[in-house]
Amino acid sequence: MLFKRIIIILFLFIPVISYANSAAVTQLEHYLQNTQTMQAHFKQIVSDSGGTVMQKVQGEIFLQKPGKFRWQTVGMNRQLIIINLQRVWIYNIDLKQVTTRPLQKNNDTTPAALLSGKTSDFAKHFIVKVKQAGNKDRLVWFDLQPKKHNAMVSNMRIGFQQGEIKKLVFQDRLQQTTTITFFNIKLNQPINEKQFIFHMPKGVDVLREK
């Protein structure tokens, strides 16, 4: 349940300079607009408010703009999530349970929507600041603060290196922190459309939310 909730909401030694929201939004839009498709492996760590690690998972991500998203984990807590413009499918493989519901249009502040959706409305949904490269990790970090008080995440940070997204860090409303590190990244290469089609497995329980 922890992993499902996190996915649905779906993740310094040198002084840095923070820029105004409009300039930071423009720069972030530039980075994300240059990413039309993405394939990568990932490692995800979830920590509680005191920094204690609660969960570690790894897997593979595929995304294609606009609005197509596939997230699959391996090992323990195996899960498959597919978003395909109209619906969300969440398949808990070990539990043999599928949950599906319409894609909510008001979820513009979730990490999945940020990565696979439109990039033209950031200023409406976020206060954005950028911290230029020069950090120990040599990433360009964007801090995103949702303007909605009831947003599914309370804070989000995205780290880029040479135009590639390398890290995604976000906090939920329970102050749990999710850190996702991407590697083996392939940008703007064709992705088979079958990756974004959910085929209902046999013998599973289905919860369909209208």
How would the blueprint of this fold be written?
Elements: H1 2-8, H2 21-33, E1 37-47, E2 53-64, E3 68-74, E4 79-84, E5 87-92, E6 97-102, H3 111-116, H4 122-125, E7 126-131, E8 140-146, E9 153-161, E10 164-172, E11 177-187, E12 205-208
Parallel strand pairs: 6-12
Antiparallel strand pairs: 1-2, 1-11, 2-3, 3-4, 4-5, 5-6, 7-8, 8-9, 9-10, 10-11
Could you please describe the fold and organization of this structure?
By secondary structure, the protein is mainly beta. The chain has one domain: Lipoprotein localisation LolA/LolB/LppX (outer membrane lipoprotein receptor (LolB), chain A), CATH 2.50.20. The protein has 4 helices and 12 strands, in the order ααββββββααββββββ. It is globular. The model is unreliable at 2-20 (pLDDT under 50).
Point out poorly predicted stretches.
2-20
Shape: globular
The CATH topology assignment is outer membrane lipoprotein receptor (LolB), chain A
Name the CATH homologous superfamily: Lipoprotein localisation LolA/LolB/LppX
Judging by the overall fold, what is the CATH architecture? Clam
Average of the residue pLDDT scores: 80
Rg, rounded, reads 17 Å
Structural domain count = 1
- Class computed from helices, strands and strand pairing: mainly beta
Secondary-structure element order, as H and E?
Answer: HHEEEEEEHHEEEEEE
Largest sheet: 12 strands, mixed
- Give the termini distance in whole angstroms: 21 Å
Beta-strand residue percentage? 35-45%
Helix content range: 10-25%
- CATH class term: Mainly Beta
**Number of helical segments with 4 or more residues:** 4
